């Protein structure tokens, strides 16, 4: 009888855990010794997991050969034609991998084309003003990726003469380059046998090898990286790593995986065990902290007619140096955004903008609601149409950014030219589009 599992780690009797096929009642042709191997590794011994060394015993040779061969054969026939796959230029591959983090392939493709057209080389990106890079990234989110990429590319230009490093040590020392990006660039661009393990890959390996370790834990990732490296056939790192990513993205999907078309179904231990839906095991991250915010939509008059007042965020922190509509955090006494809290929210908006930024406005009426989720914060926003009444101590510049924004007190009237030039976080682009102020 097939063992049933609830997706939670549980101790296994020594020698008593071998996944069987649901139909034939026979054992999988290999069992796993991954954890036994990992026991010998000092770093892995420190992991916090309930899995035991008896739990997994693998004939890795057979598992590797089967998995790698069938996966590669499948990839050679089914791989998607993606723009970054037409090149082995490590700079292009690096850009694509950074863009693909947290972002879907379909979304990335047009951004990738525009980005490499605008910044076709390490030198072009290194020498570009940050504003231009952020503008090219506008809409992709997670803007620290763009800033780190440019900082790292500048180092590549200065330290490595413009050549993206091809060793683990050198590439990993670049800003923002973690184990996944390093492995992806080294393997795809240089065919080096380095693993590239992201969430997709951990899902595939968890299911195929029936690994119940919590993939949110760093120690599990280390173990997965070792396993993924063992699986790379000699001389095939480039295709194998991409095949593994491709399987995770298109077949072994988070929900309703397409097992019947999977090239490695025959020996997939997770499927034999009926545990696919419970894998991978991942503890839930803390939900983002909700924040209620009032946003000021301030239209200009006279020479600024048709423009909207924008503020540049401070040099450091969330969305550093990006432009936005001025907004303030509302107190917790405002339980919900809506008609019943408009009066209090508008009062708070005008008082906070005046005291924090020297910006005098008169909120007139609510315009729309919006929201945006960061990894750790969820902004619930209500936008109020406001009348501009003055900017104490400094005038809002008309047409050029006014100096460096250490404290976030740089304001600028945004017309079409500024919207083309400066980067705004997506949520403000959406607000401006809905208000008819942003056309593109
Ligand atoms: S058989 Fe299903 S669960 Fe197993 S690796 Fe393939 S798609 Fe994933």
Protein described:
The termini are far apart. It is globular, with a radius of gyration of 26 Å. Helix content is 40%, strand content 13%. It is an alpha+beta fold and 440 residues long. Helix 4 runs antiparallel to helix 10. Strand 5 (359-373) and strand 6 (377-391) form a beta hairpin. It has two domains: 60-278, Hypothetical protein, domain 2 (Endonuclease III, domain 1, Orthogonal Bundle); 289-434, Alpha-Beta Complex (Nucleoside Triphosphate Pyrophosphohydrolase). The longest helix has 19 residues, at 60-78. It has 17 helices and seven strands. The strands form two sheets. It has a four-stranded mixed beta sheet, with helices on both faces. The structure holds iron/sulfur cluster. Residues 204, 207-208, 251-252, 257, 259, 262, 264-265, 268, 270-271, 276 line the site of iron/sulfur cluster. Keywords: 4Fe-4S, DNA damage, DNA repair, DNA-binding, Glycosidase, Hydrolase, Iron, Iron-sulfur, Metal-binding. Its EC number is 3.2.2.31. InterPro entries: A/G_AdeGlyc_MutY, DNA_glycosylase, HhH-GPD_domain, HhH_base_excis_C, HhH_motif, MIG/MutY, MutY_C, NUDIX_hydrolase-like_dom_sf. GO terms for molecular function: 4 iron, 4 sulfur cluster binding; 8-oxo-7,8-dihydroguanine DNA N-glycosylase activity; adenine/guanine mispair binding; metal ion binding; oxidized purine DNA binding; purine-specific mismatch base pair DNA N-glycosylase activity. One of its GO terms (biological process) is base-excision repair.
């Amino acid at each position: 009888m097939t063992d049933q599992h609830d997706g939670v780690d549980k101790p296994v009797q020594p020698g008593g855990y071998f996944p069987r096929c649901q139909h034939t009642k026979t054992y999988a042709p290999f069992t796993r010794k991954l954890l036994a191997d990992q026991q010998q590794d000092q770093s892995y011994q420190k992991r916090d997991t309930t899995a035991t060394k008896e739990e997994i015993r693998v004939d890795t040779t057979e598992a590797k050969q089967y998995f790698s061969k069938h996966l590669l054969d499948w990839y050679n026939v089914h791989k998607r034609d993606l723009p970054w796959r037409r090149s082995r230029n490590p700079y292009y591959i690096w850009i694509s991998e950074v863009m693909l983090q947290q972002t879907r392939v379909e979304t990335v493709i047009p951004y990738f084309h525009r980005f490499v057209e605008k910044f076709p080389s390490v030198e072009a990106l290194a020498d570009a003003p940050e504003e231009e890079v952020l503008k090219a990234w506008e809409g992709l989110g997670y803007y620290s990726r763009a800033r780190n990429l440019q900082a790292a590319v500048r180092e590549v230009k200065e330290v490595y003469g413009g050549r993206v490093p091809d060793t683990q040590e050198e590439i990993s020392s670049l800003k923002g380059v973690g184990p996944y990006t390093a492995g992806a660039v080294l393997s795809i661009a240089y065919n080096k046998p380095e693993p590239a393990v992201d969430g997709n890959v951990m899902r595939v390996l968890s299911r195929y090898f029936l690994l119940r370790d919590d993939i949110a834990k760093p120690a599990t990732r280390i173990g997965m990286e070792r396993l993924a490296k063992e699986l790379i056939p000699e001389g095939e790192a480039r295709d194998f790593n991409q095949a593994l990513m491709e399987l995770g993205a298109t077949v072994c999907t988070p929900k309703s995986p397409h097992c019947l078309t999977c090239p490695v179904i025959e020996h997939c231990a997770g499927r034999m065990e009926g545990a696919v839906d419970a894998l991978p095991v991942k503890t839930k991250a803390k939900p983002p902290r909700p924040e209620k915010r009032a946003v000021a939509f301030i239209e200009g008059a006279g020479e600024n007619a048709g423009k909207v007042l924008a503020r540049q965020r401070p040099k450091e922190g969330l969305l550093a140096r990006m432009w936005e509509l001025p907004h303030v955090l509302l107190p917790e006494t405002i339980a919900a955004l809506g008609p019943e809290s408009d009066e209090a929210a508008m009062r708070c908006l005008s008082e906070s903008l005046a005291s924090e930024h020297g910006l005098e406005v008169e909120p007139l009426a609510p315009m729309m609601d919006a929201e945006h989720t960061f990894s750790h914060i969820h902004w619930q926003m209500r936008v109020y149409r406001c009348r501009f009444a003055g900017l104490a101590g400094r005038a809002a510049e008309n047409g050029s950014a006014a100096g460096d924004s250490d404290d976030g007190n740089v304001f600028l009237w945004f017309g079409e030219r500024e919207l083309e030039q400066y980067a705004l976080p997506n949520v403000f682009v959406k607000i401006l589009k809905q208000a008819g102020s942003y056309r593109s």
